Amino acid sequence: MERTEIRITGFGGQGVVLIGYIIGRAWSVHAGGHATMIQSFGPEARGSACSATLALSDREVLYPYVRRTDILVAMSSEGCEKYVGELKDGGLLIHESDLVAPAVRPGQRACGVPSTRIAEALGRRLVQNIVMLGFFAGVTRLVPLEAMREAVRLSVPAGTEELNLKAFDQGLAHAETAASAPSLEGVKP
Amino acid sequence: MKADPRGVLTGTHYLDGDFACGEGAMAAGCRFVAGYPITPSTEVVERIGRRFPMMGGTFIQMEDELASMAAVVGASWSGTKCMTVTSGPGFSLMMENIGLAAMMETPCVVVNVQRAGPSTGLPTMVGQADMMQARWGSHGDYALIAVCPRSPQEAFDLTIHAFNLSERYRVPVLVMMDECVGHMTEKVVIPPAAEIEVVPRRLTARPPAEFLPYQTNGSLVPEFARAGDGFRFHTTGLTHDERGYPVMTPECQAKSVRRLLDKIRLNAGEIARVEEEDTGGADVVVVSYGITSRVARLGVGLARERGVKVGTLRLVVAWPFPEARIRELAARVKAFVVPEINMGQMVLEVERCAAGKAAVVSVPHAGGNVHDPEAICQAILGAAR
Q1: How far B284 CA sits from the closest chain A CA (Å)?
Q2: Which positions in chain B touch A20 (Cβ < 8 Å)?
Q3: What is the CATH superfamily name and number for domain B5-195?
Q4: The overall pTM is greater than 0.90
């Protein structure tokens, strides 16, 4: 994989950092690549838009921050508004479709998933982020699914693995419905 | 000797630099940490606080950084490997007792996850501006060691190395991390305990009646006696003789201070550690450390595309400074380029060692972000002209 820059954003408490952590862990620990995650720190972590960034690559990541994101995952409209400007031309916006109105520029793509509703149907709104993660995995196919599942299993609290893997699979299934899965061509640099 | 397996979380992890530093300390055998948590170093003590009970370690959240450093100095005299963790404002408050540790020859590790200063500065954002303070922050003449990790993996590896150096030379060793490395999450491989070499406290074999705490018998580092083992001796921050008792004479002062410096100076060849790439035949050498060494490689790549013969030298150990190596290179390169996230600190050392034989170009950054690789490239191109 060439360097791929990802930003995940949402409200503090939506599990933004855990999504970044799992993607990075899956790619670097379970799929043999390099992944550098940076979480945002500061006043924005307390309630409003918070974010985590990832640089994934086959080679060592030398520059730790993202500059022109290839993929923006937005779980709140505030976060989306704050960061959509850095999404590169031809970039992909993945969003919580009930919470975020996708405002992308021409040439950029957007696809959404009602991850909160899906999580509520599973009985725990808390796993909304893992539904989103499954959707991300299915839409982008950047990281092998088995590596993602392994990272989910090892990163969630003990005793919740089954529920979280179910949430992951529901998000993945949503991505596989033709309507919501745009081509990724051109997203990867 | 090999590491105590209770402190070693063997496996392949995805950890931030702070957590990895904490894991390095525990793997090295650290069992006492006193600290006053401060951003961006808090996660180091969070990790240790959570894991210490499983290995019989003690973490105390102290009332401030003065007390934290004092507790570390005291605890070390029980023979326990000790550490404190802080960032800029707390590092300033620790200076007096870092000097005490140096004077009493107390093995200990101090982690400074550097944020941008001065004063409270940018608490959550990167800086590398405590490098001179690390060397000169406490009053008087003394020497110590400072290491600069470039990644979470190195935060683990170099924290172990820091403990080993502090035991070998009986000095405070500083882990001069930066916020970017501290808050960056990457893959960290922790080997099995049997593959981790740790240096134990060098306890004296002499019977208590024959033991003098600062007798070195021709070596530069005295043997150690633990408090509580029946040795009755005195140790102090005042200038002292081999018995550890204050002696207020210029002769004793000269002898004591010279040895404090000599044990690092004369072993600098062994302690100083750099990592070089393509310095043979280079016209320009980029000298950097910590996160800046990674960004610098991008600048180097850009300059190479434009035809400049450029090599890199990374300070893995910043103090003692690799004087001999910089002097050698200065005799045959055109220029050094020194990017760092401060307004020009380690560049002064490069300049001193280059002694006019090669040009030295500073690439300063006030902090809050890493360098733009293009700015480093431009400095290289300018230096190569």
Answers
A1: 20
A2: 185
A3: Thiamin diphosphate (ThDP)-binding fold, Pyr/PP domains (3.40.50.970)
A4: yes
